[in-house]
Specification:
The structure holds two protein chains of two kinds. By secondary structure, chain A is α+β, with helices and mostly antiparallel strands. Helix content of chain A is 16%, strand content 20%. Chain A contains four helices and eight strands; from the N terminus they run βαββαββαββαβ. The longest helix of chain A has 11 residues. The radius of gyration of chain A is 15 Å and the shape is globular. The two termini of chain A are 24 Å apart. Chain B contains 27 helices and 16 strands. In chain B, strands 2-1-6-3-4-5 form a six-stranded mixed beta sheet. In chain B, strands 8-7-12-9-10-11 form a six-stranded mixed beta sheet. In chain B, strands 13-14 form a two-stranded antiparallel ribbon. Chain B is α+β, with helices and mostly antiparallel strands. Chain B folds into three domains: 197 residues, Aldehyde Ferredoxin Oxidoreductase,  A, domain 1, CATH 3.60.9.10; 190 residues, Aldehyde Ferredoxin Oxidoreductase Protein, subunit A, domain 2; 176 residues, Aldehyde Ferredoxin Oxidoreductase Protein, subunit A, domain 3 (Orthogonal Bundle), CATH 1.10.599. Helices cover 40% and strands 13% of the residues of chain B. In chain B, helix 7 runs antiparallel to helix 23 and helix 11 runs parallel beside helix 13. The chains are: A alpha+beta, B alpha+beta. Chains A and B meet through helix 1 of A and helix 7 and helix 8 of B.
Chain lengths: 163, 615
Amino acid sequence: MTKMINVDIDKCTGCGVCELMCSFKHHQEFNPLRARIHKTLYLDKAVAIPVLCRQCEDPWCARICPAGAITKGVDALSGATVVTVSEEKCVGCKMCMLACPYGAIAVGESGVAEKCDLCNGVPQCVKFCARGPFLSATWRRTSSIASREWPTPCSPPTSRRPE
Amino acid sequence: MTMYGWTGKVLRVDLSKGKVSVEDLDRNKAKNYIGGRGLGVKYLYDEIDPAIDAYSPENKLLFVTGPLTGTGAPAANRYVVVTKSPLTGAIANSTAAGDFACSLKYAGYDLLILEGKARKPVYLYIEDDKVEIRDAEGLWGFDTEETMKAVQAATSARAKVACIGPAGEKLVRYACVMNDAGRAAGRSGVGAVMGSKNLKALAVRGTKGVKVADHKAFYQAVEAAYTTLDYEYVEEFHQTGTPGVLSLVHEFGVLPTRNFQTGVNDYTEKISGETLADTLSVRKRMGVGCPGCPVACGRVTRVTDPDFAGFGFGPEYETIGMFGSNCGVDNLAAVSKANFICNRAGMDTISTGNSIACAMEMYERGLLPEEVIGFPLEFGDAHAMVKLTEMIAKREGFGDVLAEGSYRMGEKYGTTEYFMGVKKQEFPSYDGRGLQGMGLGFATGPRGACHIRGEAQDLDLYGVMDWRITKDRGLEVIDPLRYDDKPPLVKDVQDWFCMIDSCGMCNFMFFLLVDEDQMRALIEAATGIDMGGYPGFMKTGERIFNLETLFNRRAGLTAEDDTLPKRMLEEPMPEGPAKGMVVHLAEMLPEYYQLRGWDKAGNITAEKRAELDLA
């Protein structure tokens, strides 16, 4: 069983508090553009979709990284699988950006690749989401997505909770 | 010196000369007036003569954010448009939420001051430090939705747009500024002032962030605020949005019906928030959120009925109250249609709906002949209501008269007795007779009749007992029909709401139980200022309220304007829970003035001005 952040788009309202708290945690300022989670609002259907790193079982970003800066490990506090970027090793070549099917990794102002690091076991986006699109303040224990083969990069999330 | 919370910059655009300049934010003003509504009135009061005509180029239009706007504090996403109102001749301060507010802050400005008048239609494009005044002749006549799309296409898909529609261009006296698809800085005709300046739209792309003074303290304050929120209410509010309160207001017998002739009706269920959430909402019982909002009350609605087909944001509670129950219309599709027309034209739904109801009553009483209107206008006629809304937006025929507001319409046709409002601004959807505190609030509010300027419905109606205003007094329950205890409460709530509208957070957070001390903690942690504890905090609110009143006195309004229509004062409520009540204004007003430290004529005494550092 792997602990992971799971988005329930049936509940997301597109408020973007996840972006705000993410940027505050990682950059000490409130700026959605610097967040590592991004939401898009589709007004005609009143649907919002947040996208963030899925900590893939077989991370393509890590596979392609020429500097060997991206590694998969286990978060000490939560026991969750986490894919991390080493700031010392990263050369900012942006290959990971090309490889990631979700657009969930990007080279920021710092010149190194930035991605979701699960906030050392206490993800701020999960903590402050009042609607619980991430299912609950204590994340969900699931193996559904993490253990699957990725059929296509755009496959819909499998864990949409019934109403 | 770096400023925290605030960005520390003021953008000044002279539309007459086409000149753009950036100046530092006055630190003293920021400390004493915080931001939003407070900072806006301070800058406006210092820079214009309040007696000028609202449409003259000397009038200025201010877009102001607060120190918390754009931060992670719950629902910190608001900006305020401050100017002199063409509807009331008093101060106008209309707030709206949305990405536009945050973008303005992220672009690096606390305050945007628009002066003069452009010779030709223009729009403004702000991309951080780059500010351009661009030609908008091709956009003139576009509705708000078309304008936003066209401006985004011409600038950046990521630009956030605030604009006016045809109503603002045609100077409908209650035109509004619309932003982000369906959010409105609605009341007092701020859109008409924008139209008078030939300014069609503002597009902002901001990429900088907001920094706070004390990282740890701010995080803790945000955490505390989120913990305080009452999630049961949050969930209820999320499912039905503001229309959810319709049934509650009806239970109190204060839902305006047929131009405030009564406070109850038999069709509330048909137009209630629950019905809207279950039928017309695009996603059933679900809303769309403004930035950082835990509630997400925004409705997205689609009507397929061919007579009233449409799609868009809303309708909100006030809209349903005014177009629905107050016009005697029990058809939610028709109400939604009127709402879409208003949103696209850029018009205040409250004033529009109320004005139509006023015309309906005058028609039924034979004061408005059918030849003038062009068709019968009876209460409950959904088609006539929608048609008249369209006519107002285009200023066609009788719509041209009603576009001046129902007070001016009444003057033209012999009597203002059926005008329901204060200071020429129409009432929102609450009847003061069953909510005495609100009645007093309506009468004394600086911007005329309004429900979100501390007009005490939060106490009367929702019974918020978790604020220090109520907790410190040891109150456990508030009787909305009692009036002898209301003046001190109304005074405090008005001051408190001055702070709410100044900080940059949405007032809904506060009736979901965030209190005074928590807001003070947020502001202090964000800006690094010391507000002098709870007393200093409330004094700041009082200072803002008094400066607004001072603005009004210099604009020529007197204590005689602090009154209510004859119906509220003399006609007892005919039925329902508030049966037999009138607003006991004469009993409340002298005590209220005394508590405010004003003289009997409603003028602010020299001592009070000295106490609040008002010139």
